[in-house]
Amino acid sequence: MKHVIIGTAGHVDHGKTLLIKALTGIDTDRLQEEKKRGITIELGFAHLDFDDGTQAGIVDVPGHEKFIKNMLAGAGGIDLAMLVVAADEGFMPQTVEHLGILTLLGIKDGLVVITKADMVDPEWLEMMHEEIAQRVEGTFLEGKPIHTVSAYTGQGIPELKEDLHQLVLRAREKNLRVPFRLPVDRVFSVDGFGTVVTGTLIEGAMREGDLAQLAPSGAETRVRNLQVHGKDVETAYAGQRVAVNLAGLKKTDVQRGDAVVKPDSVRISLMLDVRLQNLRHSQRVILNDSQVHLYHGAAVLLAKIVLLDRDSLNPGESCFAQLRLTEPIASKNGDRFVIRFLSPLETIGGGTILDDAPVRHRRNVPAVLEALKIRESGSSGDRVVQVTAEFGTALPDGGKLAGKLGMDITELEEELRELVSVGRLVEPLPNRFAAAEVMDGVRDSCRTLLGDYHKKNPLHAGMKAAELRQKLFKAMDQTTADALLNQLCEEGSIRRVADRYALAEFFVHFTKKQSAIKQRLLESYYKADIEPATTEEIMAQFAPNEKADAKQVLDSVLTAGELVMLAPQICYHEKTYQRVCGVVAQHFAEHETITLAELRDALGTSRKYALAILEYLDRTHVTKKEGDFRRLGNPQFLKENQP
Description:
There is one protein chain. This protein has 20 helices and 34 strands. It is an alpha+beta fold. Helix 9 crosses helix 10 (409-421). A hairpin with a 2-residue loop joins strand 12 and strand 13. The chain is globular and about 85 Å long. Strands 7, 8, 9, 11, 12, 13, 15 and 16 form an eight-stranded antiparallel beta sheet that branches.
């Protein structure tokens, strides 16, 4: 599923917060001081829901010049920009600065909104429209829609919302194949939970229970709880605003500007090699050895600029440079950044990180400049990706790739690490790789198969794993096939439901009548525990006009794993089955074999039900029958059902 962040930008008091409230019904000014002063100091967040079920997050960033630091913290995760200009004032200094920052951060799409339309006459609005069109020439907003709205009267709000919907639909999806990374823009404590951080997840997928690391400190932690828009979730995806409860850390251990990352997925450095751009509207020339504020994610650091091929950088120009920092930074190649002068504080430029952990360079060295050109073009990894793609879904290991490429394995390992970190390769199994383009093909084929299945079987929770593996991968071994499917699950394209797979966005929808039947059906099996009536007897409890729906509902809950069919006439509630598995696991933890009589006595049931359980465990390869005994056939069963 696509997760998109829309960011507002514009001068103070131009109506950004009221506009968001008109679009979403949510007031993003949460601080008492903001209520009193009528301006946005901290970042505010809302979610915009569309009629087709699509949802986008909205970041309301501060407009006042003194709060530009907070604006930069929020801008890092933005996919689409909504530049807000008040009809009664037009372009102002912070409007220009915000537009420059959004450009430096690589944002490619968006629109302009003229607010407070109710405060001026139509002729003025027409003139304002023309002026704005001229002011955005040469930027990513050139030629983009310009909407005229009033948050007070509602004028233009429906049309703006529809245009935003179209932007969201065509927005590029974030890369979910890279290790998760969450720049921290707020830290606080919650009684009974401990330390909580918030931010925009800019890469990957973060799951409840994941091990994590705080960068740049290196402190180890675990994701205890996740929330998106105030609701608990098991998984958060890149492009979502996230609150994370971190285990084992005090509030004082974390600060704004840190990042919560997958362990060992980012490098820590005091230097960065970059492509540096001086804004075209900048009033400053950037000189070699200039001291600046560096804004990266939510972090603000002091840096010295070393221009590698010149003594000065004029407005509108770019060059290779090395940034030397006073504090360590956790970054990745390809990250965007912004720089501001120390005094006076004004945005002058920014750019892209080309090497996140370089050695110290001397200036005007041709070999250094040539190496940076290669890094910038990406050609150093192109051949590795190309050769990996030739293997398709065979998942070659580092040794096979090194032999094919004629590269030293140690050198290749570093290249592979880099390509995985930026999402050009994936690693579904340890030291086995697939090209991103190959995974795109697998994803599209898989989603087509599952989409067709859902249309034909709308009450089934999904397609059986074995059936999907056979249709998607044919003769591939199960370990590799499962690894590829798990990769798609981690990316949020599909999800696992019991022994089946479904599209991530697919859920079974019951009618009101079917929902009531489902509740009665599950309650019957739950109350019956380990000695339920036969399926035929339970279905006989439903009235004649409920029979057809009851059969469909029974089929649906079986596919979802809410009921487990041990034999054609014997089903267990999933909780009953879990308890039975616990008893079996406890027995195997103490004995090498189990007999029918031993299981019957352990459960306190009859031979009929004990036999149905054992035969089901045989069919699912949990146990192996040897005469009158059964041995454990799947050691993982003990781990999954620990007493």
